[in-house]
Design brief:
mainly alpha
């Protein structure tokens, strides 16, 4: 009995969260047919705490083509659930909530990140992640069917566009952007003097071109041993040069 008792939401502006968590919702869906008869651009100017955000969230859940299949589950029991309009689930919804953008010092970066994520969700929907680590996103079939550029984008047998992006792609983009900065250019300039010479020596002279053993720990051990040999060679070279500077023949003294 207690499971059917509805809870009272406080500070919740997400329609889907209210419905799926069995919270009280004041049904305003009977106004949707009236809204569809209004001009294309609407401006809601009601005062704060009058339910503007959750009303817009309800509009998104109702008209969004990405949520079309969940209409019965979310609107069952509401007025519009028994008499949906022809425009239900027919639009791509670009939903922006700038209250989520924060951070005084990094406001520009946070704003760009939020808008980029919103645009990605607007154009594509997540499908799956492959074993190789690629996330697959697909466009909506209804949109691809009526797209004037369909022949240039996908093949005749394909029903929608699929975009693949590796899970580490964001980190690769961050590295590329860092290399374009002044600090990144300075570090990359020293690469040929530090990393590349040492790595080339370990590959050509110490057998690090191929992994001799399997497993992460074994390969790490091979790399550490190779680095140790390189360090010992470097120490021996330094000592030999010092002995040579003070005119001591190290090999002769050993005899």
């Amino acid at each position: 009995m207690e499971e059917n008792v509805k809870r009272i939401p406080y500070g919740v502006s997400n329609f889907v969260e209210v419905v799926e968590q069995n919270q009280y919702y004041v049904d305003k869906t009977m106004y949707l047919p009236l809204l569809e008869q209004q001009p294309n651009s609407l401006f809601f100017i009601r005062p704060r705490r009058f339910g503007k955000s959750i009303f817009l969230s309800m509009l998104r859940a109702y008209y969004d083509i990405a949520q079309k299949e969940k209409f019965r589950k979310r609107f069952e029991g509401l007025w519009i659930g028994g008499q949906p309009t022809p425009l239900q689930g027919k639009f791509q919804i670009l939903y922006l909530d700038f209250s989520r953008v924060g951070g005084i010092g990094a406001l520009d970066r946070n704003f760009d990140d939020y808008c980029s994520g919103a645009l990605n969700n607007f154009a594509l929907i997540y499908k799956t992640t492959t074993r190789e680590g690629y996330k697959e996103y697909r466009c909506f079939e209804e949109i691809c069917t009526n797209c004037p550029l369909r022949d240039k984008c996908i093949s005749e047998k394909s029903k929608y566009k699929i975009v693949r992006r590796h899970v580490w792609e964001d980190h690769k983009d961050d590295n590329k952007n860092f290399l374009k900065s002044e600090k990144g250019k300075g570090i990359y300039k020293r690469r040929k003097e530090t990393v590349e010479r040492s790595f080339a020596d370990s590959k050509n002279l110490h057998g690090l071109r191929y992994a001799r053993m399997r497993g992460n720990e074994n390969v790490r051990e091979q790399c550490l041993l190779t680095a140790a040999v390189q360090n010992m060679k470097k120490i021996a070279t330094k000592l030999f040069s010092r002995f040579k500077e003070i005119n001591i023949d190290f090999f002769k003294s050993r005899k």
